[in-house]
Amino acid sequence: MSDFNFDANATSFPKRHELPHVEGTPEGAAWFWGKDDFIGRLNLLTPTRVVAASKEIRTGEVVPLNLPLDVPKVPSFGREQFQHEIKVLHPGVAYDDIYHLNTQSGTQWDGFRHFSHMATNTFYNNTKEDDIMGPKANHKCSIHHWAEHGIVGRGILLDYRSYAKKHGNNYEPASHHPISYAELSACGKEQGIDIRPEAEGGDIKIGDILFIRSGFVETYWEKSEAERVAMAERPHRIGKADEQKYVGVGQEEKNIDWMHDCYFAAVVGDAPSFEAWPSMEDYYLHEYLLARWGCPIGEMWDLEKLAETCRAKGRWTFFVTSSPANVPGGVSSHGNAMAVF
């Protein structure tokens, strides 16, 4: 879609069913920020929208949204454990840190190099494997582009976990539990939020950052260390038979339409996968969000204090800021985020 270059401050954008198909792009691709764009829907976080979001700062409370770097002790999906070493510069005088970190092991941003449109092996805005690794590697869709832009905007939380428990559904977050659009809509309604886009009479503004609390972090701390390890070490394989199973947004068409048409700048969850894992469809939401639309995905964020603060204040919107890692050529990043009320 190199011929497209929309105004980021526009008040309306095409709905999913209105997207034109451009030859050479995956069906449903929304690559309309120009051929050299590597920040996708972060383009929506314009100075105008950041100023508007700043009005969410009313009382000054700060809520960090990151788990400790060593949590989980044993990461899911076979990822490496965090390692921390103290380097002595001069005994009793000066010390350094050395970190060994898989950025996908804990609180994370999935960058656009993380997950492709699988049928075509194409990442966001026509980025290919050769752009990421090998002699032709370059900085297409590198995470440092996000770092240079920054992530600052209005966050909106749907506390699905509390809604489900209130209605007698005390599911296990480490199981395959797809969250439907109907449930998200009902959850929002009970919080006083109409989850439709503002253009349709709802409360979702273009460029909002969506947060969904599914309860994974809550139950992680309730488990014993042995239970946490057993959960993380379940066999992992690509496809529907994957034994790594987690709660997340369901892959139904209504959810896909909703997330597209709301024009969220990013989406965030508290489980190891934002979408219900594994997908029982022949596609993944990661393909839509990352590869087709350029919408960042946050996973394993600590939303416990955020939910408590929102509930205590009777408001579910807040100012949010995140500074991704400035690593040229990088795939993803630690969250490094906080909310301000």
Radius of gyration: 20 Å
Q: What is the residue-averaged pLDDT?
A: 97
Parts with pLDDT < 50 across at least 5 consecutive residues: none
Q: Would you count the extended β strands for me?
A: 13
Shape, per Cα inertia axes:
globular
SSE order, one letter for each helix or strand? HEEEEHHEHEHEHHEHEHEHEEE
Helical fraction equals 10-25%
Structural class estimated from helices and strands: alpha/beta
Looking across the biggest beta sheet, what order are the strands in?
A: 1-13-11-5-7-9-10-4-12
SS element count, helices: 10
Question: What distance separates the N and C termini?
Answer: 38 Å
Main sheet: strands, sense, barrel: 9 strands, mixed
**What portion of residues belong to β-strands?**
15-25%
Plain-language structure description:
By secondary structure, the chain is α/β, with parallel strands linked by helices. The protein contains 10 helices and 13 strands. It has helices at 47-54, 129-132, 144-149, 160-166, 181-191, 216-222, 225-232, 253-262, 285-292, 304-313; strands at residues 62-64, 83-90, 94-100, 108-110, 151-158, 177-179, 209-212, 247-249, 266-269, 297-299, 317-322, 333-334, 337-340. Strand 9, helix 9 and strand 10 (297-299) form a beta-alpha-beta unit. The longest helix is centred in the middle third of the chain and has 11 residues, at 181-191.
